[in-house]
Amino acid sequence: MKLSAPKQITYLISVIIAIIAVVATYLVTIPFFTANAFIVLIVAFVLLALANFVKGL
Fold first, then answer.
1. Three-state secondary structure string covering 1-57
2. What angle do CA 14, 55, 7 make, to 5 degrees?
3. What is the span of the domain harbouring residue 27?
4. Measured between alpha carbons, how far is residue 50 from residues 13, 23, 26, 46 in Å?
5. What CA–CA distance (Å, rounded) separates 41 from 54?
6. Is residue 37 one of the residues assigned to a domain?
7. Could you give the CA distance from residue 10 to residue 41 in angstroms, rounded to a whole number?
8. Count of domains observed in the chain
9. Please, which residues have CB within 8 angstroms of residue 47's CB and are 6 or more apart in sequence?
10. Does the first or last residue of the chain, that is N or C, have fewer Cβ atoms within 10 Å of its Cβ?
11. In sequence order, which residues have a C-beta less than 8 Å from that of residue 55 and are 6 or more positions away?
12. Which regions in the chain score pLDDT beneath 70?
């Protein structure tokens, strides 16, 4: 299995999603994100991991 670096836009999207999850947990109440912050954080991590496995993502 060969890994590849994710594109910069994919990396930025996953970081933004993760930041939204953390902010929704500790600072601001955002209706969907506050209730599902852990799942949103998992989605950000899975997106980043998937970008390492799929070339061009």
1. CCCCCCCHHHHHHHHHHHHHHHHHHHCCCCHHHHHCHHHHHHHHHHHHHHHHHCCCC
2. 40
3. 8-53
4. 13, 24, 27, 6
5. 20
6. yes
7. 15
8. 1
9. 10, 13, 14, 17
10. N
11. 4
12. none
Q: Give the count of beta carbons closer than 10 Å to the beta carbon of residue 54.
A: 11
Chain-centre distance of CA 49, in angstroms? Answer: 9
17 assigned to some structural domain = yes
Q: What is the pLDDT of residue 1?
A: 76
Report if residue 42 sits inside a domain. Answer: yes
pLDDT at 55: 84
- The whole-number pLDDT of residue 57 equals 73
The per-residue pLDDT for 16 is 96
Report pLDDT for 56.
Answer: 78
